[in-house]
Design brief:
Distance between the termini: 9 Å
Helix content: 40-55%
Structural class: mainly alpha
Number of strands: 0
Largest sheet: none
Strand content: under 5%
Oligomer: single chain
Shape: elongated
Order of helices and strands: HHHHHH
Radius of gyration: 27 Å
Number of helices: 6
Length: 175
């Protein structure tokens, strides 16, 4: 370690070590490198998610499904579930998208073919909202999703930095 070999190039073999050579043991180095690599991959995934667009209608439906305040919107603006084994189809015989009602709602339209099914008391206020109020709600959900992505990214960065900080370092500033 007193020679010009970098600290990261040395591995301590054997059972005895000093406080100076303890960080050089192979198990410590492998665990730390694997942990840092895993955290780096998580960070990259979180960053890619963060950089994606503000969210599709499907992402919005998933977001409001877990919202305590807006769960009733999910029931009102999602396509009703089909009976066992059945598939809901649209005009041209294609499977109906799960975000069809949300798409209509966001454009200020009515529930269309689902108007009767969506006339329940829980859904009434949702479908009566003015187009401007609907746009504000969509924007609110997009901002909440953006904030969640940002929080995830910040947590991943903090975990990565902590692991890098805790990784074995060269004693007395040696490299």
């Amino acid at each position: 370690m007193g020679i010009c070999t970098g600290f990261g190039s040395i591995v301590r073999l054997g059972s005895k070590s000093t406080t100076r050579t303890l960080p050089l043991t192979l198990p410590d180095q492998i665990i730390d490198k694997d942990k840092i690599k895993t955290l780096a991959e998580r960070f990259e995934d979180s960053f890619e998610t963060y950089m994606q667009d503000r969210g599709t209608y499907t992402h919005i439906l998933l977001h409001i499904e877990f919202s305590e305040m807006d769960r009733h919107f999910r029931d009102a603006i999602s396509v009703p579930e089909a009976e066992d084994g059945e598939v809901l189809v649209g005009k041209h015989g294609l499977q109906m998208a799960e975000d069809r009602c949300l798409a209509r709602w966001s454009r200020g339209r009515d529930a269309g073919i689902f108007a009767k099914a969506k006339s329940e008391s829980l859904c009434d206020g949702v479908w009566e909202m003015k187009p401007e109020a609907r746009s504000v709600k969509i924007q609110q959900w997009q901002e909440e999703m953006h904030e969640e992505k940002m929080n995830t990214l910040v947590c991943q960065i903090a975990a990565f930095n902590k692991a890098a900080e805790d990784a074995p370092k060269s004693p007395q500033g040696e490299n």
